[in-house]
Write a structure and sequence with these properties.
Layout (H helix, E strand, L loop, with lengths): L2 E5 L6 H12 L2 E4 H9 L3 H8 L1 H13 L6 E4 L8 H9 L1 E7 L2 H7 L16 H15 L2 E4 L5 H17 L2
């Protein structure tokens, strides 16, 4: 299947770049966090607060593993990389692109993490979260785009260029 899944830390631009990338490729755009909220009829932060992080991960895994689309840019939540089944499924239906950004740049972009529905353990800092997740993003990524110092257009061009090169080399 011809999909592109964007993974990365909260604030890395998955949804913003995803919408523009979908337009450029003439694809649909799917934000899986919105699917979770629709299914659960609650905000992500409410699910995490009311049901706990483990239950949230189960829901996130199920929702992402059940995505069956084609010609779509998929933007899952940053914590999807804790969900092996979901990540294997997303890899099987298209390319997985990791939007890489430094901790310093992320901390400038992000406001209240809990309000954003970010899956944090008690007392966990952004730095701890970053160090925990980066190896998982790298593990699942087919392609890594270093966004450091790039604006939206430059990130988009880098993705399109790499996708085009990969398609030429099939």
């Amino acid at each position: 299947m011809n999909n592109v899944t964007l993974i990365g830390m909260p604030g890395s631009g998955k949804s913003t770049i995803g919408v523009i990338l979908a337009k450029a490729l003439r694809y649909e755009f799917l934000d899986s966090d919105l699917l979770i909220q629709k299914q659960e009829k609650r905000k992500l932060s409410e699910i995490i607060e009311q049901d706990g992080p483990e239950k949230f991960k189960e829901i996130e895994n199920q929702v992402n593993a059940d995505i069956h689309v084609t010609d779509t840019v998929i933007a899952p939540g940053g914590s999807v990389i804790y969900c092996d089944e979901a990540m294997e499924h997303l890899k099987s239906i298209g390319k997985v692109i990791y939007l890489k950004l430094s901790l310093e740049s992320l901390s400038k972009r992000l406001g209240n993490l809990k309000g954003r529905g970010v899956l944090l353990k008690d007392g966990q800092s952004l730095k701890n979260l970053y160090e925990e997740r980066v190896p998982l993003y790298e593990k699942y990524a087919d392609i890594t785009i270093d966004e450091e110092g790039k604006d939206l257009d430059e990130s988009l061009r880098a993705i399109l260029e790499i996708i085009h090169i990969k398609e030429q080399g099939k």
